[in-house]
Design brief:
By secondary structure, this protein is mainly beta. It has 3 helices and 26 strands.
Length: about 350
């Protein structure tokens, strides 16, 4: 009997030891998920990566990340709890735009498979081979038209020298809240906004200044040189939004004074940050009403077949220029009535 008990105990001990040994021999693994968040070139920003582990004890581990690009470092430790944690990578002023797809993470002696970090280019507007250029141009400024109550004006948020018949404007990553307004504010019927808390500013201008810092003209990005007699034309402009939002719908308006009818069609998928918007004007005549008909389509999708070029327009050559009207003290159409912008003002 005693002999049988000893055999049973020995079997239990051996089984326990064998099981323990098998567990200890199971490999430690680390897996890194896809990037969350954006690091932009030259900016102090962070991106995170979900980390999954196996056979690694809960704890805080100093991450060892190989092949990090210049200007990027691992921030803090990776705290593992229940086989998961988060790796944070931080960009700095030295970070350059590009994709690095051979990063690896090592914690507690276990190394992950390669994962990818993408550093996005800083938002910019680059113009080359400007048509109708002028030797008078020295500086280019990117300006916003803002309105708060009865107060309004233009504010410069970026500038660049005019060189070699072109310029490159480095846009700020964010726009101060005081220059933004709710996209859904004073929204006409027929429009649908996915997030009514998002703010934006669509009224942006690219202005030319001479050696005396006098505003002498504007730049625009069109499919052909602007001509108010044209029946159809398309252009692009920049708008900032503080969140992701869609805007869709159609508005119809009749201007009895001018005997004109306007149809505005919007299909916008705005991302947080800077967006390029494309507008296309078509003009026709309704013989039954005697009205001139204007259809304006505004999208975030570049129109098929459109070929845009940069143009410069010297102020004083076109009567009724909106920017000149501001200089003379006349308040222009501002963002809050962006959806009711007559052709004489909306056609940029």
């Amino acid at each position: 009997m005693k002999k049988n008990i000893k055999l049973i105990i020995a079997a239990i001990v051996c089984a326990a030891v064998f099981t323990s040994c098998r567990k200890d021999e199971e490999p430690k693994t680390v897996t890194v998920d896809a990037q969350t968040g954006t690091i932009m070139a030259g900016e102090t920003q962070t991106a995170t990566f979900a980390v999954m582990t196996a056979n690694i004890a809960d704890g805080s581990y100093a991450p060892q990340v190989t092949n990090l690009p210049a200007g990027v470092t691992a921030q803090g430790n990776v705290a593992i709890s229940n086989n998961s944690g988060t790796l944070t990578l931080a960009g700095s002023a030295g970070a350059q735009a590009g994709t690095t797809d051979n990063l690896t993470l090592t914690i507690d002696g276990a190394t992950s498979q390669a994962f990818t970090l993408t550093i996005a280019p800083a938002p910019e507007i680059a113009a080359t081979n400007v048509i109708n250029s002028s030797s008078q141009i020295v500086t280019v400024k990117f300006e916003l038209l803002w309105e708060t109550g009865d107060d309004w004006g233009y504010v410069e948020i970026a500038r660049a020298p005019y060189q070699n018949n072109g310029f490159t404007l480095k846009l700020p990553l964010t726009v101060q809240d005081k220059y933004l307004f709710l996209l859904a504010e004073d929204m006409p019927s027929g429009m649908t906004v996915s997030d009514k808390t998002v703010k934006w500013i669509p009224n942006t201008y690219i202005e030319a200044y001479d050696k005396n810092d006098e505003n002498i003209g504007e730049f625009y990005f069109n499919d052909h040189e602007r001509n108010y007699a044209d029946d159809e034309q398309s252009g692009a402009f920049w708008a900032y939004a503080d969140g992701n939002v869609t805007l869709k719908g159609e508005i119809k308006e009749i201007d009895e004074e001018w005997n004109e009818e306007y149809i505005y069609k919007f299909d916008l998928d705005l991302q947080k940050g800077w967006n390029i918007l494309y507008d296309r004007w078509t003009e026709s005549h309704d013989n039954s009403t005697g009205r001139d008909m204007y259809t304006v389509t505004v999208t975030t999708q570049k129109p098929s077949g459109a070929n845009y070029q940069w143009y410069f327009r010297l102020y004083g050559l076109v009567a009724g220029n909106e920017y000149q009207a501001v200089k003379s003290g006349k308040k222009p159409v501002t963002g809050k009535n962006f959806f009711y912008r007559p052709r004489r003002e909306m056609n940029r």
